[in-house]
Amino acid sequence: MSKYDYDGYDDTDTYELNQMQDHGNGSHDALMDVSQGGLKRDLRLRHMVMIAIAGTIGTGLFLTSGSTIATAGPGGALLAYVIIGIWLIFVCQAIGEIATLLPLPGAFNAWGGRVFDEAFSFQMTWMYCINWALTIPAQLSASSLIVSFWLPADTKFPPWVVPLIIIVLMVFINIAGVKTYGELEYWFSILKIVTIIIFIACGILVDAGAI
Fold first, then answer.
1. Torsion angle, CA of 156/158/159/164, rounded to 10 degrees?
2. Tens digit of pLDDT for each residue in 114-163?
3. N or C: the chain end with fewer CB closer than 10 Å?
4. Tens digits of per-residue pLDDT, 192-204?
5. What is the topology of this protein in the membrane according to its UniProt annotation (predicted)?
6. pTM of the model
């Protein structure tokens, strides 16, 4: 049983209660005030929109889609994507509702502690950290496989060069700050979307016999 009330707020926690009362009037900027230990907000709307769009497009589209279609067939792969897409709509709707109810710094790491227990928030935070500690190396390995695919078979190209370059770029972006990250993410996202459109167009032309 949670030590908090059903709405996620304790009676003695006056800060969030006052902020929730002000939220109805559209005044909740203090929740993300840097004086509360938050981060500097330099991301613009165009940055967040492109991050959201391109964030749904992972390396699986370039790396594993072929094997998925070969195993399940076009209809099975399409059905799987539709089912997962519908499920993610429900998840995103739930996250949006929680973010509206609890507009607190820390996102879902803080929500777990407010609604359930601090131990739940502690566990969720570490799971999130471990998730990215495993995801980033997997993404780096995928980048090496993608580059190796397009190189000639007799090319002696060290597979570790591409991940090393990406790691250096990641360190630079994190040192440069969130504004630099937003700009780079914006333009890289546009490049990713344009690349996908070109691949789809080329696939249609190949199937139609035009190429």
1. -150
2. 888 888 888 888 998 999 899 888 888 888 888 888 888 777 888 888 89
3. N
4. 889 888 988 988 8
5. Multi-pass membrane protein
6. 0.62
